User: Fold this.
Amino acid sequence: MKNKINIKELVICIVIPLAVGLISALLSMNAREEFQTLNKPPLAPPAWLFPVVWTVLYILMGVSSYLIVREGKEREDVEKAIDTYLLQLFFNFGWSIIFFNFGWRLFAFAWLAAMWILIIKTMNKFKPINVVSFYLLIPYIIWVTFAGYLNAGFFLLN
Assistant:
């Protein structure tokens, strides 16, 4: 394990998921308004909470990915772990567009389920490389599990 922090690499690793989230949010600008019009399942949080939680989660994801990248991009296990991470990030990017722009609630749920599986795979690939990176993704998988509950509720109620 390398102890020296490469600030440039850390910032890049944090900016990548933040940029993915920002671009996805910009592409689904009507999300907050549409959220207000939907019949909500029990425990649905207020709309303002989503960008706050996602910002924290994207930062945690970025730090987690940095801990993996710093182990050495030339390592095959690191490369495979980062590939899986980037794939789940792609699924993360697409969910709000599918859910809000297209209104495909059931497909969005299936997309989210695939994303959930990819997050678990990412966590399992991260853990043997750097256990802290695994733990940093726990809030993410918990939130996506909760998002699955909400997505199913929105599908059934709307």
Summary: The chain is about 80% helix and 0% strand. The radius of gyration is 16 Å.
